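Q: What structure does this chain adopt?
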Amino acid sequence: DAAGTATRMPDGSEAWPGWEDCAVPPARLGAYLRDFRALLAEHGLRGTPYGHFGDGCIHVRVDFDLITEAGVARFRRFSEEAAGLVVAHGGSLSGEHGDGQARAELLPRMYGDGLVALFGRFKDLWDPDGGLNPGMLVRPARLDEGLRFSVLPKRPVDVEFGYPQDGGDFAGAVRRCVGVAKCRTTETSGAGVMCPSFRATGEEAHSTRGRARLLHEMLAGEIVTDGWRSTEVRDALDLCLSCKGCRSDCPVGVDMATYKAEFLHHHYRGRLRPAAHYAMGRLPRWLRLARPFARPLNALARVRP
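A:
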C-alpha cells in the first residue's frame, strides 16, 4: 500500500514518483538523505521516502506539479540536480527497476558520454531499424516529454459532484489512481472487497484501475474521442456495482461509484436511459405509488399454492 498511500501528502496534496528508485552505498545513505532533503527544500518540494534503506535504495514520492509549464520545468531542474547528487555519493540512478524514459536522459551523468554511446552502437548491431523499445535508453526522449498529465484539460471540467478532496476537479479525482493494482486481487479470504467485477471477469477493463485509466483517456481525448458520450467508458462502467469497495480498500481512495454516477449523468443527459435505470433508479417513487396496495399485496403473498 505504500506506493499508493505515499502519493498523497498529509495535507491531501498530490505527490508523484518522478524521482524514484535511486540507490547509494548503504554507508553513504545518511549523508545522501540529508543532501537530498536539502535539495528538496531548495526547490520548494516535499517528499516521502520509504523502502529498502538497508540496501541504500530509496523510493520517494515528491509533490511535483506535473500540470503547469512552470511545475514541469521545476521537475526537470530538480531531476538533473538530483542525478548529480546520486552520482556524487557513488550511487546508481536505478537501484532495482529499469531506467526507462524517466532516467535514460540522465545516464551520461553516471556512465559518461562514451559508454552511453557504446550502448547505442551495441543496440544498433541487433536492432538496426530501431524498432525495439525506441526512445528509451539509446537516443532517449526527454525526461519531461510525454508526461501523462500533459494531455489533460487545463481547467476543471463541468461536473455535478463536488470532489472536495480533489479541489473540485474531476481530472484530479481520476488522477488518484496510480496503478497500484490492489483492485486486481482475486483473493476472497481477507477483509478486502475490491473489486467484485474484476474478480468475476478477470479483465482489466472491469477493474477500478482499468476504469480510472479509461476515464483518463476520455478526459485526454486522444484515444477515447467522444467524451462523456463514450461507449467504451460506458461499457467498462456497466459492471461496476457502485459498492464503494474501492473507496475503502484503495490506498488512495479512488471512488469509482461516484465517478460512474458522474459519467452516467453526462452520458445520458438529454437522452432516454435504459429501462432498468428508471425501474431501479426511481424505486422509492414506485414504492410510494404502491403503498395503497400494500395490505392486499402482502396478504396475497401469504397465500399458499
